[in-house]
Amino acid sequence: MKNPIGLFDSGVGGLTVAREIMRQLPNEDLVYFGDTARVPYGSKSKNTVLKYSRQIVRFLQTKNVKAIVVACNTASALALDEIAEEIEIPIIGVVKPGAKMAVETTKTGNVGIIGTESTIKSGIYNDYIRELNSDITVVSKACPLFVPLVEEGLLEDRVTEDIVGRYLQEMKEYKVDALVLGCTHYPLIRNTIKRFMGDEVCLVNPAFETAKSLKELLMEQQLLNVNKHKPEYEYYVSDGVDKFISFADSVLPFHVLDTKVVDIESY
Ligand code: DGL
Question: Which residues are catalytic?
Fold first, then answer.
């Protein structure tokens, strides 16, 4: 099916998910929405994130998307279940695929989860992991400073190393052997996290797992675009086009030319 896939995030971070989908589903058109005017979602309540997500889903549906990917971990944690009940097209988030991979990866049964305050408070990763295997011990930790560090471009920096050490020390103490990067921005500092945690700890990237799950879902529902074609990507934000484009340039392997501003409050 030719229609595009809709993808949304609280801002720029979901581009890490877009990047994986572009790699793994090269024939699919994408419509990306980043809620750059209202970011961050990671410190907001369920009601607010649900209200914002509903507006974005309504906007994406005006683009005739065939499926929606909630690229934001926080929105996946706080809004996905409700929205899935309200719309007719398939919708997936990043949490379930990440949780599933963590269960498949761990050998010791000690899994770590890091994410925004709201994602960690929701306990959703723990719930999914325990649903799959109740013997697994889950250690979770909110890492609120990681998002601004990444947005400042401090990917390989002493400050980031220091903060990684402070946040993740307890993950080492609990001897986790699988650590879920449960926030869109964290894969961008995976090298710093890896150096601190050591090679024996496997870092699970929900963005990668989500692209895999999306492919399976589209195949199952016969929505996958099987014909080879040059994909078209559209980008929309709620504010700050220039900042979005410069971040996109650091994440995507090509230059993003056209990004439009949407009055998302009107949806
Ligand atoms: N996109 C958010 C997430 O993955 C991180 C940024 C925010 O707090 O909005 O949870």
Answer: 72, 183
